[in-house]
From TrEMBL:
Protein name: 4-coumarate--CoA ligase
Alphabetical list of InterPro entries matching this protein: AMP-bd_C, AMP-bd_C_sf, AMP-binding_CS, AMP-dep_synth/lig_dom, ANL_N_sf
This protein's GO CC annotations: peroxisome
Family: Belongs to the ATP-dependent AMP-binding enzyme family.
Every AMP-dependent synthetase/ligase domain range: 55-424
One Pfam family cited in the UniProt record for this chain: AMP-binding
Domain AMP-binding enzyme C-terminal span(s) in chain numbering: 475-550
GO MF, one example: CoA-ligase activity
Alphabetical UniProt keywords: ATP-binding, Ligase, Magnesium, Membrane, Nucleotide-binding, Transmembrane, Transmembrane helix
Organism field: Microthlaspi erraticum
Cofactor(s) demanded: Mg(2+)
Residue ranges crossing the lipid bilayer per the database entry: 263-283
Length: 564
C-alpha cells in the first residue's frame, strides 16, 4: 500500500492517516491506498502524443470481429497521422468541435485520436439516439465537421446544422477533396478510408496543446432533463491512461462490445488499452453469441461489461458452457452501474476461473474513481473497490453539510486528476457541481469502510440506470406533459434483473380522458432512444409533491416496489 504507517507527508504538513482506511481525521478526507501514479510534468502535451509514446510489445492493435480486418499498431498510428494532417488541411483547428456518429468500429479510435491530436475536441453521439436527441447535441456543441456512417447520415436531418460537412466512415471510394451527393446530401466531403490511404502532401504547423485544454465533450444526462456536455481534458485522459497502467497487465486481448461513445468504452478502447499494447477485437454492438464466439476465436483474456451483460452470462450459463470455449478468459471488468452482490456471487460460482473486478466512476470523473485490482479485493462483495490512484474523497451529510468519517453514509465528493474541467457552456451547472477547492459533488450516496473500500448505497441524483445508460426522469416527464391528454406525470425507476432499471411513469389523465398505457408508451417511444422508453404506466389521481412543488419520487419508488 502507498500510505505510510502513522502519517503521510504532503508538502510541509504531516497528515495523520489511518493506514487501513486511508482516512485523515484532521482533514476528514479519505486518501487512496494505491501507489500514486506519476503524471507527465510537461504541460504542453496532448493525449494522442502521450499514448503513442507509451512503450509496449503489442503487434496487433485492432481486429474487426465481423470482417476479420486487422490493424497493426504501426498501421494504426500511421492512419492517425494521415487523418490528422487531412483534418488540418480541411481547416480543423484547436478548439473546434468534431462530432462522431458511428457504432463501434476499429476506425472510431483513429478519428478520436486524430481530432484530439490537433487540440480540437471530439464529441461522441450515441448511434441509437433519435434525430431530435442528436440535433440537441449538435446545436449545443456546434461542430465544424462530422464523421458519420452512411446509414446514420439521415439522422442529421432534424438538426439546424443539417448542412454540417460530413466524412463517411464506411465508404472508401470518395475522394476527401471532392463532394459527392449521397441520398441528396451535398455536404459529404470525403471518406475516412481515402484519408487513411492517401499520403499527405506538405507539412502542418502543430499548435500548442495544453493538458488543461478540452479533449473530448461527452454528453451526460442531467437531473434537470437537459443533457450537459462534460468537458474532459487531455490531463484527465492522460491520468486515466496512467490509472489503466497501474490496474492492468500489458499486451492482453479483449473484445469491445460496450459503446465507444460512452465514457466507459471511450476511456478503455479509444485511449487506455491502446497505450498498454492490447489487441482489441471490436463488435459493432452487443450480441451475446457474437461476444462469446469472439472470446473463443480470438482467445480473449479480458472483457469489459456492464451489469446486464454479466447477468446474461449468469442466466445463460448452461448453454454457454456447452457451446463456447472460454478457457482463455480470466478477468471481467464490470462498470457503468452497480452490480448486485447476488449476481457477483453467482457469477463467481459459475465461472470460478474468472475474477470479476468492479469499479465506480462517472462521466464527470473520466470513468474512474474507485476500482478493484486483485482477486482478494473481489471478495469484498458489494464494494466498488478502493479509491483509484491519486483520488481523494469526502463523505458529506447531504442535509447538514457535515463531513463524515469511516462507515458513515453520505454524498461522496471526489477530487482527482480525472475530475472534469466542467460542463460545456454551463457555468452555473459547473459551479454547483465543483467547489472552489476542486471537489466534485457526485450526487451518489456512499460509505467507505474501515479497509478503505467504497460502497455505493443509493443515488441522490434522480438518474435512472438502464443497461448502463443514464436516463433523466425530467426529460421523459417533459415529453409526457406535451401530450394533450396528460395533466401531470412523474417518472421513476422500476427494478429489472437484466437491465438494472427501467423507466416507469405515473400519470394523471385530464378530465374525460381514457388514454391507455399502450398509447402513452407508444407516444414516448416515437421521441426517445430505446433505452429511455417507458416500460410501465400507472394512473394516479395526483402526483405527490412537496410544498414547493417538487415531485416526491421516494414515495413513488416505495409505491412501485410495494407492488412488485
Amino acid at each position: 500500500m502507498a500510505l505510510k504507517h502513522g502519517g503521510d507527508d504532503i508538502g510541509s504538513v504531516t497528515l495523520a492517516l489511518d493506514r487501513k482506511s486511508g482516512f485523515c481525521e484532521s482533514t476528514s478526507t479519505f486518501h487512496s491506498k494505491r501507489e500514486p501514479m506519476s503524471l507527465p510534468p510537461n504541460q504542453s502535451l496532448d493525449v494522442t502524443t502521450f499514448i503513442s509514446s507509451q512503450p509496449h510489445r503489442g503487434k496487433t492493435a485492432f481486429v474487426d470481429a465481423v470482417t476479420g480486418r486487422r490493424l497493426s499498431f504501426s498501421a494504426f498510428w500511421l492512419a492517425v497521422e494521415r487523418v490528422t494532417t487531412y483534418l488540418h488541411a480541411l481547416g480543423v483547428r484547436k478548439g473546434n468541435v468534431v462530432i462522431i456518429l458511428s457504432p463501434n468500429s476499429i476506425l472510431f479510435p483513429i478519428v478520436s485520436l486524430s481530432v484530439m491530436s490537433l487540440g480540437a475536441i471530439i464529441t461522441t453521439a450515441n448511434p441509437i439516439n433519435t434525430s431530435g436527441e442528436i440535433a440537441k447535441q449538435i446545436d449545443d456543441s456546434r461542430p465544424v465537421l462530422g464523421f458519420i456512417t452512411g446509414q446514420l447520415v439521415s439522422k442529421l436531418a432534424a438538426a439546424s446544422y443539417s448542412n454540417l460537412p460530413v466524412v463517411l466512415m464506411d465508404e472508401n471510394r470518395v475522394s476527401p477533396n471532392k463532394s459527392q451527393n449521397h441520398e441528396n446530401r451535398e455536404n459529404i466531403i470525403g471518406s475516412l478510408e481515402a484519408m487513411m490511404e492517401t499520403e499527405p502532401s506538405g507539412s502542418r504547423v502543430k499548435h500548442r496543446v495544453d493538458q488543461d485544454d478540452t479533449a473530448a465533450l461527452l454528453y451526460s444526462s442531467g437531473t434537470t432533463g437537459t443533457s450537459k456536455g462534460v468537458m474532459v481534458t487531455h490531463r484527465n485522459l492522460i491520468a486515466l491512461v496512467q490509472a489503466y497502467r497501474a490496474r492492468f497487465e500489458s499486451e492482453q486481448r479483449t473484445v469491445c462490445t460496450i459503446p465507444m461513445c460512452h465514457i466507459f468504452g471511450f476511456g478503455a478502447f479509444a485511449t487506455g488499452f491502446i497505450a498498454l499494447g492490447w489487441t482489441i477485437v471490436v463488435l459493432p454492438r452487443f450480441e451475446m453469441s457474437q461476444l462469446l464466439s469472439a472470446v473463443e476465436i480470438h482467445r480473449s483474456s479480458y472483457l469489459s461489461l456492464v451489469p446486464p451483460m454479466v447477468v446474461a452470462m449468469v442466466n445463460g450459463w448452461n448453454e454457454i458452457k456447452s457451446k463456447y470455449d472460454l478457457s482463455s478468459l480470466h478477468t471481467v471488468v464490470a462498470g457503468g452501474a452497480p452490480l448486485s452482490r447476488e449476481v457477483t456471487e453467482k457469477f463467481v460460482e459459475l465461472y470460478p476461473t474468472v475474477k470479476i473486478l468492479q469499479g465506480y466512476g462517472m462521466t464527470e470523473t473520466t470513468a474512474i474513481a474507485a476500482s478493484m485490482f486483485t482477486k482478494e479485493e473481489t471478495e469484498r462483495y458489494g464494494a466498488s473497490g478502493l479509491l483509484a490512484p491519486n483520488v481523494e474523497a469526502k463523505i458529506v451529510d447531504p442535509d447538514s453539510g457535515r463531513v463524515l468519517g469511516v462507515n458513515q453514509t453520505g454524498e461522496i465528493w471526489l477530487r482527482s486528476p480525472t475530475v472534469m474541467k466542467g460542463y460545456f457552456k454551463n457555468e452555473e451547472a459547473t459551479a454547483s457541481s465543483i467547489d472552489s477547492e476542486g471537489w466534485l459533488k457526485t450526487g451518489d450516496l456512499c460509505y467507505i469502510d474501515s479497509e478503505g473500500f467504497v460502497f455505493v448505497v443509493d443515488r441522490l441524483k434522480e438518474l435512472i440506470k438502464c443497461n448502463g445508460y443514464q436516463v433523466a426522469p425530467a426529460e421523459l416527464e417533459a415529453v409526457l406533459l406535451a401530450h394533450p391528454e396528460i395533466a401531470d406525470a412523474a417518472v421513476v425507476p422500476i427494478p429489472d434483473v437484466k437491465a438494472g432499471q427501467y423507466p416507469m411513469a405515473y400519470i394523471v389523465r385530464k378530465a374525460g380522458s381514457n388514454l391507455s398505457e399502450t398509447e402513452i408508451m407508444g407516444f414516448v417511444a416515437k421521441q426517445v432512444s430505446p433505452y429511455k422508453r417507458i416500460r410501465k404506466v400507472t394512473f394516479l389521481a395526483s402526483i405527490p409533491k412537496n410544498s414547493s412543488g417538487k415531485i416526491l419520487r421516494r414515495e413513488l419508488i416505495k409505491l412501485t416496489t410495494s407492488k412488485l
